[in-house]
Write a structure and sequence with these properties.
Blueprint: H1 7-34, H2 39-48, H3 66-77, H4 81-99, H5 104-116, E1 121-124, E2 140-143, E3 147-158, E4 165-171, E5 181-187, E6 193-198, E7 209-220, E8 224-225, H6 231-237, H7 239-267, E9 269-270, E10 273-274, H8 279-307, H9 314-340, H10 351-360, H11 368-380
Parallel strand pairs: 1-4
Antiparallel strand pairs: 2-3, 3-7, 4-5, 5-8, 6-7, 9-10
Helix pairs in contact: 1-3, 3-4, 3-7, 4-5, 4-7, 7-8, 7-9, 7-10, 8-9, 9-10, 9-11
The structure holds flavin-adenine dinucleotide.
Flavin-adenine dinucleotide is lined by residues 123-126, 131-132, 156-158, 201, 204, 209, 360, 363-367, 369-370, 373.
């Protein structure tokens, strides 16, 4: 077992750490406060190849794998979860799902523009009445002679309010239940497709979240991704990778909070000495560090198994990675706020933002309860 990154991976880590420190950090407070999309960081991320990490180089991607995706996610989350979320949504969800199932023509037309950031993408599954039970979605895609007519509403869609390109899941054969779902892409401006409300959120505030509304929206049959009624295969194919990446994002948030707390505790004095000298504060640091290292080990084990196509037991391990990473993020950021005392509760320090951002890790991309359900089901089926 190898726990070390390669030379190339270390170079990538340094590059992303520099990008996060120099370009992302300075906007983190502002985009959170104003709920604005991180356009500057987005453009630069496109230039650095971070928007299409796993896309092949011939389509403008970086041609890398899941370990590299985890490295990028961890470094960005440690500085600004909102920027991390917008970038990882494009790279790890939209592009990754699209490229594995799109035709050559579809790839040539859209991948280079998605990888450069010219097109902002979103991926829409959730509906007002279909969240954890997403396969019960109501959205219809009715077949016509030369295409499909879409009707329905998607909600809680990351990047939705600013998206130029949406990957949308809808039922082509509702009578077949989960086996009657298909995936389509649709461009902003298509008649019958409009953006609904943009949500005001607790965290991830620089990563816009909104509704997408489809009313008798016609799309040509060329917009079908993969095969009709086989959308569930597309959904399932990337799921383990997505969970591992979400897990490492949680580890990244926790690391950012730990680093800020270590610095603060050494500067802050009470009772005539640095608060870092108090054993109860040191106890927190030791526990925070241990949880982070455990979460990181779990995430890179999962990433390494996926990279090497060792799929035995991967579903439960990936779910455990997401579950644990989310809890590490929540627990460590809560302790960070405690270490900052009253200042931790104020927006002039970053730890309250880390704590608000951490909460979403237990909800988005499948709640913690659903991850536990997946793990238990896998264990009991052995
Ligand atoms: C900021 C944000 C961004 C998002 N981005 C996207 C996106 O880009 N694309 C997209 O498609 N979706 C997105 N989502 C949706 C997200 O995946 C769902 O919110 C999530 O899957 C939970 O669904 P729900 O909110 O409907 O909660 P519900 O499913 O209604 O769950 C409510 C509660 O019941 C629990 N529960 C439900 N079922 C069970 C069960 N079987 N056993 C035990 N407990 C259960 C849940 O764990 C939760 O605690 C996003 C959500 C948020 C908040």
């Amino acid at each position: 077992m190898n726990f070390e990154f390669t030379e190339e991976q270390l170079m990538l880590q340094k590059m992303v750490r520099d990008f996060a420190g120099n370009e992302v950090a300075k906007h983190a407070y502002k985009i959170d406060k104003e709920e604005s999309f991180p356009y500057e960081a987005w453009k630069k991320a496109g230039e650095l190849g971070l928007l299409g990490i796993t896309a092949p180089e011939e389509y403008g991607g970086s041609g890398l794998g899941i370990i590299e995706t985890c490295i990028v996610a961890e470094e960005l989350a440690a500085v600004c979860t909102s920027t991390c979320a917008t970038i990882m949504h494009q790279s790890g969800l939209v592009i990754d799902n699209f490229m594995r199932h799109a035709t050559e023509e579809q790839k040539e037309k859209y991948l280079p523009r998605l990888c450069s950031g010219e097109l902002i993408g979103c991926l829409a599954m959730t509906e007002p009445n279909a969240g954890s039970d997403v396969l019960s979605m109501q959205m219809r895609a009715e077949k016509t002679e030369d295409g499909y007519i879409l009707n329905g509403t998607k909600t809680f869609i990351t990047n939705g309010p600013v998206a130029d390109f949406a990957l949308v899941y809808a039922k082509t054969s509702p009578e077949k239940g989960a086996k009657g779902i298909s995936v389509f892409f649709i461009e902003d401006g298509t008649p019958g497709f409009k953006k609904g409300k943009k949500f005001e959120k607790m965290g991830w505030r620089g990563s816009p979240t909104g509704e997408l509304i489809f009313e008798n929206c016609f799309i040509p049959k060329e917009n079908l991704v993969g095969e009709e009624d086989k959308g569930i295969n597309i959904l399932m194919a990337g799921l383990d990778s997505e969970r591992v990446v979400m897990g490492v994002q949680g580890v990244g948030i926790a690391t950012g909070a730990l680093n800020a707390s270590l610095k603060y505790a050494q500067e802050r004095e009470q009772f005539g000495k640095s608060i870092s000298k108090f054993q109860m504060i040191q106890d927190k640091f030791a526990t925070m560090y241990t949880k982070i290292e455990a979460g990181r080990a779990l995430a890179y084990k999962g990433a390494s198994l996926i990279e090497n196509e060792k799929t035995e037991g991967i579903a439960r391990l990936a779910a455990a990675t997401k579950l644990f990473g989310a809890d590490v993020a929540m627990e460590v950021t809560t302790e960070a706020v405690q270490i900052f005392g009253g200042y931790g509760y104020m927006k002039e320090f970053p730890v309250e933002r880390y704590m608000r951002d951490a909460k979403l890790m237990q909800i988005g991309g499948g709640t913690s309860e659903i991850q536990k359900h997946i793990i238990a089901k896998a264990l009991l089926s052995n």
